[in-house]
Write a structure and sequence with these properties.
Blueprint: H1 6-20, E1 30-31, H2 36-43, H3 48-51, H4 54-57, E2 65-66, E3 69-70, H5 71-87, E4 97-105, E5 112-121, E6 127-137, E7 143-145
Antiparallel strand pairs: 1-4, 2-3, 4-5, 5-6, 6-7
Helix pairs in contact: 1-2
């Protein structure tokens, strides 16, 4: 069984949601700080129903694979988290994150790009970290999480 660290997953979700809200660009480097659409979808992680929503599932490419974890395994982990929160409402919710300084670079012939950004988690410990992940263009100006494509 793969344990998926949900705080790490939050970074990827924030990145994909920010990118889903921004349009494409003609250059190799693109940037956008997100939009109201990003905030709306990310806010769905505040509730068990939102965690299992089609909008959240849609930020993952069907070929998503990250450190051996597939899209379906990730969605199953979110479903499990949602079920636990439903059963035990006193548990804390998914970490609330914001993302800025988003940029895309190094897009290859398969439309796979490197995304970098600054992730802010303003819970009790107020954490800010830089992160990098791979995303793939959907061809309509949006991007989905692609993962590192490593089996483990």
């Amino acid at each position: 069984m793969n344990n998926i660290p949900l705080r790490t997953l939050a970074a990827g979700l924030a990145a994909a949601l920010a990118l889903a809200a921004c349009g494409g660009s003609d250059g190799d480097n693109k940037s956008d700080s997100g939009s109201a659409n990003y905030a709306t979808v990310l806010a769905q992680l505040n509730t068990p129903a939102g965690m299992t929503s089609a909008d959240v599932a849609a930020v993952f490419d069907n070929g998503y694979l990250d450190s051996g974890t597939t899209k379906n395994q990730t969605l199953d982990a979110l479903s499990g988290e949602a079920a636990a929160l439903t059963a035990h409402s006193d548990h804390s919710v998914f970490p609330q994150v914001t993302l800025d300084n988003v940029s895309l670079s190094g897009c290859d012939a398969n439309n796979v790009c490197t995304l970098t950004g600054t992730l802010h988690n303003n819970d009790a410990d107020d954490t800010t970290v830089q992160f990098t992940t791979k995303v793939v263009s959907t061809g309509n100006g949006a991007y989905r999480l692609f993962g590192d494509q490593l089996a483990s």
